[in-house]
Description:
- By secondary structure, this protein is an alpha+beta fold.
- The chain has helices at 24-74, 82-86, 90-93; strands at residues 10-11, 18-19, 126-128, 139-142, 147-150, 153-154, 159-160.
- It has a domain at 24-86 and 114-154.
Amino acid sequence: MIDKLYIHGFKTKNSKHLQLGFTLVELIIVLLILGVLAAIIVPKISNYVEDAKSVGTLAQLKNIRSAFELYRTQHNNKYPTLADLQSNWSVMINNTSIDGSLSVDGKYGPYMQQPPKNPWTESTSVVNIVSAGDIADGWRYNENTGEIVPVGFDEGTGKFAEP
């Protein structure tokens, strides 16, 4: 019997059978290498996801604010009321008359196809920006200035922080 190292396996001294496979040490080393690579790559990927969400939020804010400005221009210099937005953004997704009331044959609007979701919380709810209190989702809105911000999002840093 000749003892030789084979590429696909090895023979033992007392066996005529070819033994295939990896040793436990080899498997542990491979798993350690994969773990180190995962520890390096996963945080970078999660940062890219958060950055993309921040950019999307800023773009969505720009679109919402443009829709509010168009509404204000067409409705006697008035922004939608908080109550209008709290009723599923009704005046923004339907036709309205010059006074801002909903009208099937109104010549103004719709300004949006659907109520926008806060990208961080997936909520369409709207509260007063001044007295929002402990609201944990949706949007904060000031009907006097048209200012709207997603709850928990800081435009200055472009980051979301739990409210």
